[in-house]
Amino acid sequence: MHAKTARPQQQQFLAVNIVMDSVDVAAFLAAGLRGDVSRKSTMLSAAVALSAFVAGTTALIEHKQAAAQETEPTATAPSDSDWE
Question: 56-74, pLDDT tens digit by residue?
Fold first, then answer.
C-alpha cells in the first residue's frame, strides 16, 4: 500500500483508538466512583488508559503533521536566471 493512501487509514485507526481509550478512562473512573473496584485499582487503570489516550493523540498529531509536510510544495533555491 502506498504511504499517501495508507496515511488516512492510519489516522482513522488512531482516532478510533483515542475514542476507545477515553471511554476506558471514563469507565474506570465511573467504576471507582460506584465503589465497584478499589481506589488503587481505579487510579492505576485510569492512569494506564489515560497514558494510552495521550500516546494515541500524540501519534495522531505527528501523522497529521507529516501528511501536511508531504502536501506542501517544496521550496527551491533561486537559479542564476532568477537574479537577472
Answer: 999 999 999 988 888 766 6
Q: Residue 69: what are its φ and ψ, rounded to 5°?
A: -70, -35
Report the distance separating Cα 72 and Cα 62, nearest Å.
15
CB 67 within 8 A of CB 42: no
- Encode pLDDT of 11-38 as tens digits: 999 999 999 999 999 999 999 999 999 9
C-alpha–C-alpha distance, residues 82 and 72, integer Å: 22
User: Are the CB atoms for 32 and 42 separated by under 8 Å?
Assistant: yes
Please choose, from the candidates 40, 39, 42, 15, the residue with its C-alpha nearest in 3D space to the C-alpha of residue 27: 42
Q: What is the pTM of this model?
A: 0.73
Residue matched to cell numbers 507529516: 66
Cell 483508538 belongs to 17
